[in-house]
Amino acid sequence: MHILIWILRVLVVLLLVWFAAKNADLVTLNGFGGALRAPLALVLLAFFGAGLLLGLLSALYSIFRLKREIRSLNRALQQKSRGDTALGAIGTASSSTNEVGTNPSGTGG
What is the pTM assigned to this prediction? Predict the structure, then answer.
């Protein structure tokens, strides 16, 4: 399986190198205050990277929100389990008191 993954990685790198070689023509980007001349492959790679970065940054908000929700749910679960443990201890203590010999009806015998 590892060999297959490495073969796939090498193929992707070769495909990118081939793409960059075929698109080595200079392009001019006119924008804020001037013009930029760069190879087309470099421009495409830069815009792809910028889009990838923006996508990851927008996903970070959701990730942090979900992590915060998981933390609060874990706290609530821990508090509930502590409460159940305390109630279980109270229940066993009261039932053991009744088993010792006290009459719960209060009639004394």
Answer: 0.52
